[in-house]
Amino acid sequence: MNTTNASGASGNQNQSSVQSQQGPSQKQQAKGDLKGMDYQQQQQALDPGVARATLRLGSRGADVSHLQEQLNKGGAGLTPDGAFGPLTRQAVVAFQASHGLSPDGVVGPMTWGVIDGGGGGTPAPGTGTPGTGSTPGTGSTPGTGSTPGTGSTPGTGSTPGTGGGSPPATGGSALQALDPATEAAFEEESKSIAAALKETALGGGAGGGDMPVKPVASFPAWFNQIQQLLIDRKSWGETENQGQQLITRYATERAKASGGSVPGSILVFLEYIGGSEANQKGAKGGGGKASNDLGGADGNANWCQAASTMALETALARIGLAFQGGYGSWFPAMMGKFKDQGGIAAYDRSAWSFPVRSGDIISVIGAQTPGTGHVATVVEASGDELLVVSGNAGSNIQGSGSVRVDQAKRATPPSGYSYDKVVTGKLPACQYRPNPGELWIVSVQRMSVLWAELGTLAGMDPNSGEYQAKLASLKLRRIPPKQ
């Protein structure tokens, strides 16, 4: 890697004469700071020009973060978290292929030479570019292949971005597996994490939460295993962080595969899967995403609505927006809006067959909750199949709700059923209940309409009358972006 010395000369040109004029060399200065470093780190400290470590799937550390940042300059849209996962490998393969290198996904001396030599990067097929400037980030580069777009970072400039990556050109479904190579890479990464989590797994118990503990039918076994292992534990450390980050990345990629920009509320919600009332204290102290951020503090009851609402509010805050008066005031005030789009709400019988989309908040009746119901956010609805994420969902620890992804079949209640009558006590709660594995939708808060409207802000001048009028019509206000 080329360096610039204190005199402004590049590389190693006239290095000895410069050192004689400026005192001890960088190597000499570094010798006293090598304690605790491994050999590779010592070599890097003594000679910044030495080759970086060879990186591959599963590698971690500062070099991986640097790699991700360099690839992002070409639009890879990676999170520079220092973890070399399947998405980083995919971006590396694309970079190698576009620069005439062997596309093996391993970052060795030749690949480092191109990356650190300023060759830039080429985004992998189907990667959306996240917003980073004053224009809202919307994942502007559409997918061109079978791999879904990965631009998910909201804009960081003065104008709120809308988050979410662009859809793949060929479409897809969150209920379908990713391409075989990506699935295999995720599974390989999961093996050591699952093995470590199983060593400290808690036994089953009476259970808690509003949703039954069962696998997500369309997701791989390793995902279901890690999701449940995280939910059913109280301790939290680095392995738990790795597990939560892995299932978050996987679930996010599945959400993006359905096409269209993923609502920011889903992206936020998926960061917390695996969190529960039982582990929230450990997760908070151990650097994880703790359920109490979404209302799931230890001992809280019925926090499913709070979780969906707080995920929505957090997503808006990340792009510098907030509801006027809070969600509790905002939603009733918007009830008369968007009639040309079918309205923003449906209740009881009108909700039974009401079409739902990604980002909608729904109230459902399941076999486990015939009276109280449960609130979830829709990840995808395809035919009768529902993929949702929710708070206060199932766990194997008594009294502990969780944040988890679930899948169920949507069904229609019998004609004699009325959710309103159950709520008002005019109909016994247990007189009717769905079959196991089925859900009745009894209320819809159509936040998919809000996210679609936010997408129209892209490209608008935030100081223009048009922009201000749009915010006013949506009853939103601008705030400093929060992360």
Name the descriptors:
about 475 residues; 5-stranded mixed β-barrel; two-stranded antiparallel sheet; 17 helices; 8 strands
Write a brief structural summary.
With 483 residues, this protein is of the alpha+beta class.
Can you offer a commentary on this structure?
The protein has 483 residues and is of the alpha+beta class. It is 34% helix and 10% strand. The chain has 17 helices and 8 strands. The strands form 2 sheets. Strands 3-4-5-6-7 form a 5-stranded mixed β-barrel. A hairpin with a 2-residue loop joins strand 4 and strand 5. Helix 7 runs parallel beside helix 8. The N terminus is likely disordered.
Q: What class, by secondary structure content?
A: alpha+beta
Weakly predicted, low-confidence segments:
1-51, 119-171
Number of helices: 17
Q: What is the averaged pLDDT score?
A: 77
N-to-C order of helices and strands: HHHHHHHHHHHHEHEHEEEEHEHHE
Which percent band covers the strand fraction? 5-15%
Oligomerization state: single chain
From the N-terminal CA to the C-terminal CA, the straight-line distance is 33 Å
Radius of gyration: 25 Å
For the largest beta-sheet, the strand count, sense and barrel status come to: 5 strands, mixed, barrel
Strand order of the largest sheet: 3-4-5-6-7
Q: What is the percent of helical residues?
A: 25-40%
Total DSSP E strands? 8
Task: Report the principal-axis shape.
Answer: globular
